[in-house]
Design a protein that fits this description.
The complex is a heterodimer. Chain A contains 5 helices and 14 strands. Chain A is α+β, with helices and mostly antiparallel strands. By secondary structure, chain B is mostly helical. The chains are: A alpha+beta, B mainly alpha.
């Protein structure tokens, strides 16, 4: 029976699928989805870029801001600047932002997972997770935003975001230190000190963070360690091979 | 030579290239995921990554394999994280282009398409990807090698093995139960 399926017949049928395969319509795609990548300067420039793309990103930020304010109605913040990449939009806010300290922490609502199983869901090689000065992770869980979080003994956490993660907004005060990080993934930034992370489902108080993207996914490393030290940890985790 | 977005190719041209490859990228993402569900999200993420990496794109290299490699990697990661929720399917008749062949020929081809699609759904993602890139998208072995980040010889052997498994699945589906 299999002889009936000649190479030519199989290949013709496969070729015909190009016009009949059910795929989402291309009209949903946005071909200029992010702001221009900031040039390799430090610190990150606020409101840089070309006007047309700035408008597109402004629309995205407006949505993120609206969502964040809706979820955090008492915020009396004025957005003084912003930039974004991946699932994250970083907003620089004025000094009159409400004190975020009553907010919970990112790990508060995480559902615990068995560590060995959870590590297979993190697209970072298991040996790299144990290769930093932190030693091997001691716990893991799934946050309400999806993806997997692993935690080390000192409280440092790594969140491997789900692909296509919804927009997350980090709110920082004007004096806070947000910098682009070079030599880490495709694009990375660090935020030194406490700030608010507004996800589509909650707002939390966050410590120093390094956030990066590469071919394997999007990652958020949080710790009370200095940003420079956190960057080195991230580079070890993101190392090739 | 490094690609310099400001000098060699403007953002508008980069956008145009992304737009042109969009339909093909959606098919590749759909086949690697094994379902149309979420394929547009995967391609959107890949477009964002390509946009961020555009200043590192080497303009001497073909654009399409470079971008489809990002799409395939993104789809593989997404499938690992979310699992597979659905199956490959054909569009409804109303959304299909009119057949170019006679009604009789089209009926035969339609039956073959359905059989091959059912068999594809039984293959793993790696087999689906190499078959889709070579025969659905009609890309050369060299282009597929770029996208899958492997030597051309590996593409040849993977293609041959995937075709054997596809035929096995086709034969199994024809066998009376």
């Amino acid at each position: 029976m299999s002889l009936m399926w000649s190479d030519e017949r199989v290949e013709n049928a496969l070729a015909a699928l190009a016009s009949t395969l059910d795929v989402p319509p291309p009209s949903r795609l946005v071909t200029s989805p992010t702001s221009p990548t900031p040039p390799a300067v430090r610190p990150v420039r606020w409101r840089g870029g070309r006007a047309r793309r700035a408008l597109a990103v402004a629309a995205a930020v407006l949505i993120a801001t609206t969502a964040a304010v809706a979820l955090w109605p008492e915020a009396r913040r004025a957005v003084a600047g912003w930039f974004g990449f991946g699932s994250v939009v970083v907003e620089r806010v004025s000094d009159d932002v409400d004190d975020p300290r009553p907010l919970g922490r990112f790990v508060d609502d995480v559902t615990p997972l068995a560590l060995p199983d959870a590590l297979t869901g993190v697209p970072v090689a298991v040996e790299r997770l144990g290769a930093t000065t932190l030693g091997p992770p001691v716990a893991a869980g799934e946050p309400p935003e999806g993806g997997v979080v692993v935690r080390w003994a000192d409280g440092t956490t790594l969140w491997a975001l789900p692909a296509g993660a919804d927009r997350n907004t980090k709110l920082i005060a004007p004096g806070d230190d947000a910098r682009q990080v070079e030599d880490l993934g495709d694009f990375a930034l660090s935020l030194e000190g406490h700030h608010v992370l507004a996800t589509p489902v909650r707002q939390v108080i966050a410590n120093t963070v390094v956030w990066w993207l590469d071919d394997s996914g999007e990652y958020r490393l949080e710790s009370d360690r200095p940003a420079a030290e956190l960057v080195e940890l991230a580079r070890t985790l993101a190392a090739e091979g | 030579m490094r690609y310099d977005a400001d000098i060699e190719l403007g953002d508008a041209a980069f956008e145009a290239r992304l737009g042109a490859v969009g339909p093909r990228a959606l098919r590749v993402a759909t086949v690697v995921l094994g379902t149309a569900t979420g394929a547009d999200d995967v391609v959107q993420v890949a477009m964002e990554r390509a946009w961020r990496a555009r200043d590192r794109y080497d303009d001497d290299r073909p654009f399409e394999p470079w971008f489809l490699r990002i799409v395939a990697n993104t789809a593989r990661n997404d499938r690992r994280q979310r699992g597979r929720l659905g199956a490959l399917a054909e569009r409804s008749a109303a959304r299909r282009p009119p057949p170019a062949s006679t009604p009789e020929d089209d009926a035969v081809l339609a039956a073959d398409r359905r059989a091959v699609l059912t068999a594809l759904n039984r293959l793993d993602a790696d087999d689906r990807a190499v078959l889709a890139l070579r025969f659905v998208e009609q890309l050369s072995e060299a282009e597929v090698a770029t996208i899958l980040d492997c030597p051309v010889g590996t593409v040849k052997s993977r293609t041959a093995r995937a075709k054997v498994r596809l035929r096995t699945a086709l034969t199994a589906s024809e066998r009376p139960s």
